[in-house]
Amino acid sequence: MKKWLWRILALIFVGVFLFLLLSGKKDKAPLKQVKIVRGTISEKALAVGTIEPEKEIKVKSIIPGIVEEVFFKVGDKVKAGNTLFKISPNPTPVEYVETRRAIEVAQVTLSKFQADRQRNLKLFEQSLISQSEMDGVESAYNDASLRHKIALERLELMEKGRIRMANRDIDSTVKSPTTGMVLSQSVFQGDPVVPLTNFQPGTELCSLADMGKLLFKGTVDEIDVGKIQIGMAADIQIGALPDSRFMGNVERIFPKAKKEGNATLFDIEILVPDAADRQLRAGYSATATITVRSKENILTLPERLVLFENGKKFVEVKKGEVVEKKEVQTGLSDGLNIEITQGLAEDEMVVERPPREIK
Description:
alpha+beta, 4 helices, Helix Hairpins, 23 strands, Elongation Factor Tu (Ef-tu), domain 3, CATH 2.40.50.100, four-stranded antiparallel sheet
């Protein structure tokens, strides 16, 4: 029994000795040091947004009806004047009856003025009425004739969807207002179409855009917007194309902020050059890194090594076996590295303390 007791005590003694030995070595481990080096630091602002066409046109119809035929597919390139849709007139029964009745009324009015014209023409030939009276009769007859013609043309357009007037073909087709690519289609064969008027926005049929002129449209935080100027260079990275980078220039900064949650943001637009030669699509998510200012060949140090105390900045340096604090002056920072303007020389070493253990 005594032998076992002595063995246990010996094991405990060895364990305590090893623990103290290892702890002492750990405390005496050499401190890591970082060298002051020359490098480049750039201050940057980050914008988050999407790739959008510079101008996107919403195509609408000025003629009501039903979509009879579609002459394109989404993604097609079209030229100005190309036919996009054929709209079949679809008047309501009330509109059709009113148009028919308007023709009958115009015919009755025309017949009356035609008879008046014939009667007054005979009187004029016999010099029984003056030239001014005859001119008044002729004007009334011409006005009635024009109204009758308008009523007939309205019925023809309502029934056939096309007429020819003043050597010009007027039909119910919708043509492309510009050259570009079809981005989206909102109506299909058989869908009803409400016309664009002064009192209603009308049905959107499709949208077109020139994909050779693209913009990055995004937002920047209010902290950064004051540093950005028109024309500054921006590095655009697109999430769907991780291996591609596009350089652009700031085109526009909006003067009014908007709120998103607790953040105050400003809209910004960046021109994407040579977009026609790149496989870019409208709506791609993207980020833009805008270089605000940059310095080259300056003394740099990891910013995590700079200590802030009582409004002053310090670093730790080792002199012999003693670690001392040394005051420094700093300049430009990119969030990772910081410029050292005074207090340290090139190749000088700065102490980097090991991270504190979380207990």
